[in-house]
Amino acid sequence: MLKQERQDFILEILDNEERVIASDLSQRLDVSEDTIRRDLKELDSLGLIKRVHSGALRLGPPVQDFTKRQDVNKDIKIELAKKAVEFIKDDMVLVIDSGTSNLAFVNQLPLNLKATVITNSPPIAMALGSHDDVEVIMLGGTMFKESMVNLGVETIEALNTIRADMYIMGVHKIDCSIGISVPSIGEASVKRKMIEVSNDVLSMVTSDKLNTFASHIIAPANVLTYMITNSKKNDVLAMYESQQVTVIN
Amino acid sequence: MLKQERQDFILEILDNEERVIASDLSQRLDVSEDTIRRDLKELDSLGLIKRVHSGALRLGPPVQDFTKRQDVNKDIKIELAKKAVEFIKDDMVLVIDSGTSNLAFVNQLPLNLKATVITNSPPIAMALGSHDDVEVIMLGGTMFKESMVNLGVETIEALNTIRADMYIMGVHKIDCSIGISVPSIGEASVKRKMIEVSNDVLSMVTSDKLNTFASHIIAPANVLTYMITNSKKNDVLAMYESQQVTVIN
DNA sequence: ATTGTAATTGCATGTTTTTGCATTTAATTG
DNA sequence: CAATTAAATGCAAAAACATGCAATTACAAT
Lengths: 249, 249
What we know:
Chains A, B: Residues 3-58 form the HTH deoR-type domain. By secondary structure, chain A is α/β, with parallel strands linked by helices. The first copy, chain A, has 2 domains: 3-57, Arc Repressor Mutant, subunit A, CATH 1.10.10.10; 68-248, 3-Layer(aba) Sandwich (Rossmann fold), CATH 3.40.50.1360. Helix content of chain A is 36%, strand content 25%. The first copy, chain A, contains 9 helices and 15 strands. In chain A, the strands form 4 sheets. A 7-stranded parallel sheet of chain A has the order 6-5-4-9-12-14-15, sandwiched between helices. A 3-stranded antiparallel sheet of chain A has the order 1-3-2. The model of chain A has no long low-confidence stretch (mean pLDDT 93). Chain A binds chain B through residues 19, 21, 50, 52-55, 57, 62-68, 122-123, 125-129, 132, 135-143, 145, 148, 150, 154-155, 158, and chain B through 2-5, 8-9, 12, 65, 67-68, 122-123, 125-126, 128-130, 132, 135-143, 145, 148, 150, 154-155, 158. β6 of chain A pairs antiparallel with β7 (141-144) of chain B, so a sheet runs across the interface. Chain B binds a DNA duplex through residues 3, 22-23, 31-35, 37-38, 41, 53-54.
């Protein structure tokens, strides 16, 4: 593994996990702790992470609370969310799962929207607390704390009795030929079911998620009806269009 | 837990609770009191908190989060919660429903607690996000926004397959002779079911809730195993004791 | 191909940080 | 004032760190 690769990987882990411990990284990346220390030192001096004794923290305000957790691409996500909201009409039935993009989307929904929202994400449900005319149906399950989402057989079973107009899918990794993927099987099977019970699928995809993949493939990219992205690379976007995905830019 | 994380956590607690006791923090964060003292000393010298004998105080007003409404009796509820936490042991299975007292309770649980929590309240589930050894099982249902809780037949059905050691019941209205009551039938039936599936029932009851009632009666007061209250009225409390309720004061 | 240079990595060494415990000192409470 | 509780101090063990060095690799120029 190349040094640059390794450091990118550290940044990616940090993006997901809020903190890293040097000795853990040493094991996960199979290099000595000295090398990890050097990496962390370097990334810190580049201003990309905050180095602390025994590990490193993600930059930005340390916040446990998921409802006010804002990540790096906050502004971009709000812009994408505004475009996504235009697809939502009164009386629609929406399935919405977890993710900061989806949270931004929900926060952009007009307060007078009349709709039904089915979600397995507690933060999404709570964010809809002030939308008086949105009925929120929460799917139960075992809470997966990394992404604050309910998963498991109960969740999938509950979806059996659901039919939705649109699924707002949180996407972490997407590659035009590989498809949409996540790092855990639990998330994968629930998302697959959500696709199944929905007429259309809409995802907000920041450009850093394009051309990436993880271990568990949910479905090919063409399950997306709409992909809203800030990427301007026409060659990439054309590939999605050729798979009947409507790309909004 | 990294030192920096711990100190961030202390600041966050202080943001919620106005004051902290060193010995409490030691238990909640699972480190020695010496370490807590060193942390407080450090945070104080950074001008982030005001160190006082036995603990520390918040400087200035809390960072307002408009999404969560502030609570009238917050300090009292924190005190009751601290007493309630003493009843919780490792490996217990807890059912916890909604309410600000219950939220305070969950926030007081030590970070190293090993337990299973079953809840129909999204805020409760989210508050347990930093307890690595607490498995959270979320009950689905239709979200009742006034109290941010999932209700309905799905919720009750899911409880059918549950058996718990203790139910931490949010109580809004209680009267010694009338019983425990709520203003909606949906809440009443779910709470009734939660009582049914639990060996013991514990409630934190601020004095303003005593001798009040609402339209839908859940159960007589004697379903409570433990009632933790700040009320000092001995005549009232004696009436509960005579119904085999253990009153903690 | 070969040589020289720089980058990268792991290891050995000594140093620093962090933490918990024991002891002493100080503050608080009744 | 006595008893309890909290704080300060010093100490020791473990973990993390910095440093220098050697081995390896990558790469460029010859």
